[in-house]
Write a structure and sequence with these properties.
448 residues, alpha+beta, Outer membrane efflux proteins (OEP), four-stranded antiparallel β-sheet, 12 helices, 67% helix, elongated, disordered N terminus
C-alpha cells in the first residue's frame, strides 16, 4: 500500500479507491443473485414487512372474542362553598365541609353472541393467510425477475460479442476490398458494400452496448451485485421436456397450487365473511358484564368504606337504522359476487399462462436445437463462400451476406436459449411450483 502511495503520490483514500478498483469483481451465479436480492431488494423488503404486519390480523380478530378487562382508579378532593357552616352529626362527624374520596373499579366484558365480532375473527384469520400467500407470490415473482434480469445481461453480452465479431470481419473485408480496388482486381461496388456492412456493424455495436448497460443496471438494481461478476451459461443446455410431460397435467397442478388462484379464493372468502358481518347487524348482541369496586370517602363518618361487585347480561337489539344496514348488505353481496367473478377470471388466466409457458418450454427446446443446426450451417456457408471467393466463383457481396447470416444465427441462438430458460421458470411459477430449490436445480444444470 505504501509503495503504491509513494509511486503515484496518492493520499490514503485515493489509494484505497484505486486498490478497490483493481480487484476483480466477485463472481456470482443465478442462485447467488437470488440470495443477494433477498437481502438487498427494497420491493421484497416491503413484501416481507407487509407479511409480518399481516400476521397480526389473526391476533386482532381473535382478541374481540376474548374477555375485555379494564381497571379505573379515582381520587377526588371536594371543598363545598355553600353553606359555610359545618353542622356536627352524632358522634362528632362533620356533615359538610372539605372531604376526600378515592377508589378503584375493575370491569370485565365477555361477548356471548355477536356476529360482527365472530366474523371479525374469521376475517383476521383469512387476512393472515392472505398475507402469507401474497408474500409467497412476491418471493416467486422475485425469483423470476432475478432470472430474467440475469439472462438479459447474458443475452446482451452475447449479442454485443457477435456484433463486435461481425464488425471486425467487415473491417477486414473492407480493407481487402480497398486493396483489391487499388490494384484493379475488384470494383468500387465491393468496397461500397463492405463499407456499408462495416458502418452498419458500428451503429449496431453502439445500440447493443447501450442495451447491455441497461441490462446490467437493472440486475444491479435488483441485487446490488456488480454485473461484471456474472457467470455465463454453458453452451450446450439440457433440453429435457417438462415433467410431467403433458399440458393437462400442468394445468391441473396449477389449478390446485397457483398462488394467483389461492389469492383470489382468499379474497372471495373475505368478501363472504364481510357479507355475513353486514347481515349480522340485523341480529342482537349479547354481552356478559361483571365488575368489582372499592371506594373510600371521609364525607360521612358512618360509612367511610364501601365495596361491591356486579354481574349481568346486556342484550342490544337493533330496531331501525334508516335503511343503512340493508344498503351495506347489498353492497357486501355485490362485492362478494365481484370476487367470485375475479376468481373465475384468474383461473382462466392461469390456464392461459400455463399453456404459454408450456409451449415456451417444449417449442423453445425445439427452437434451440434448430438454431444450433442453423448456426452450424451458417458457419459452413461462410467457409464455403470464402473458398469460392478465393477461386473467383463468389463475390465479396456473397461473403458479406454469408457473414451477416452467421452472426444473425449466433444472436438468434442466444435469444432462443435464454427464452427457453425463462419459460422453464415461468411454467413453474404458473403452476405454483417456483421454489428456491427449482432455481437451484436450473442453476446447477446451466452454469459453467
Amino acid at each position: 500500500m505504501s509503495n503504491l502511495m509513494k509511486k503515484n503520490n496518492l493520499t490514503l483514500p485515493a489509494a484505497l479507491l484505486l486498490l478497490g478498483a483493481s480487484l476483480p469483481s466477485q463472481a456470482f451465479d443465478l442462485v447467488g443473485a437470488w440470495h443477494a436480492a433477498r437481502d438487498y431488494n427494497a420491493d421484497f423488503a416491503v413484501s416481507r414487512a407487509q407479511r409480518d404486519a399481516g400476521q397480526e390480523k389473526l391476533v386482532q380478530g381473535r382478541s374481540q372474542l376474548l374477555p375485555q378487562v379494564s381497571a379505573t382508579g379515582t381520587y377526588g378532593y371536594n371543598n363545598p362553598l355553600q353553606p359555610s357552616s359545618t353542622p356536627t352529626l352524632t358522634g362528632g362527624a362533620q356533615a359538610l365541609g372539605r372531604y376526600e374520596n378515592h377508589g378503584y373499579t375493575v370491569g370485565m366484558q365477555q361477548t356471548l353472541f355477536d356476529v360482527g365480532k365472530y366474523t371479525g375473527y374469521k376475517k383476521g384469520k383469512l387476512g393472515t393467510e392472505l398475507a402469507d400467500t401474497t408474500f409467497d407470490a412476491a418471493e416467486q415473482q422475485l425469483i423470476l425477475d432475478i432470472a430474467q434480469a440475469y439472462f438479459d445481461v447474458l443475452r446482451a453480452q452475447d449479442t454485443l460479442a457477435a456484433t463486435r465479431a461481425s464488425k471486425k470481419t467487415y473491417l477486414n473485408l473492407l480493407q481487402q476490398a480497398k486493396t483489391a480496388f487499388e490494384v484493379g482486381t475488384a470494383t468500387i461496388t465491393d468496397t461500397n458494400e463492405a463499407q456499408a456492412g462495416y458502418d452498419g456493424a458500428v451503429a449496431q455495436e453502439i445500440s447493443d452496448a447501450n442495451n447491455l448497460e441497461l441490462a446490467q443496471n437493472n440486475l444491479k438494481r435488483l441485487t446490488g451485485l456488480d454485473p461484471a461478476g456474472i457467470q455465463a451459461v454453458r453452451d450446450q443446455l439440457p433440453l429435457d421436456p417438462p415433467k410431467p410431460a403433458g399440458l393437462e397435467a400442468w394445468i391441473d397442478m396449477a389449478l390446485q397450487n397457483s398462488l394467483k388462484i389461492k389469492t383470489a379464493q382468499q379474497n372471495l372468502d373475505l368478501a363472504h365473511q364481510s357479507a355475513i358481518e353486514k347481515k349480522g347487524n340485523h341480529l342482537p348482541t349479547v354481552t356478559l358484564n361483571a365488575g368489582y369496586s372499592d371506594q373510600i370517602s371521609n364525607q360521612y363518618g358512618n360509612y367511610p368504606h364501601t365495596r361491591g361487585s356486579n354481574i349481568g347480561v346486556t342484550v342490544n337489539v337493533p330496531l331501525f337504522a334508516g335503511g343503512g344496514i340493508n344498503s351495506q348488505v347489498r353492497e357486501a353481496l355485490a362485492q362478494e359476487e365481484a370476487a367470485r367473478d375475479q376468481l373465475e377470471s384468474t383461473r382462466r388466466q392461469v390456464k392461459e399462462d400455463v399453456r404459454k409457458a408450456f409451449l415456451g418450454v417444449t417449442n423453445g427446446a425445439a427452437l434451440v436445437r434448430a438454431q444450433q443446426q442453423l448456426l452450424i450451417s451458417a458457419k459452413s456457408k461462410v467457409e464455403s463462400t470464402r473458398m469460392g471467393k478465393e477461386v473467383g466463383i463468389r463475390t465479396n457481396i456473397d461473403l458479406l451476406q454469408a457473414e451477416q447470416s452467421y452472426y444473425t444465427a449466433l444472436t438468434s441462438l442466444a435469444n432462443a436459449k435464454y427464452s427457453y430458460l425463462t419459460a422453464r421458470l415461468a411454467l413453474a411459477q404458473a403452476a405454483g411450483q417456483l421454489e428456491p430449490q427449482v432455481l437451484a436445480d436450473v442453476n446447477r444444470l446451466i452454469v459453467r
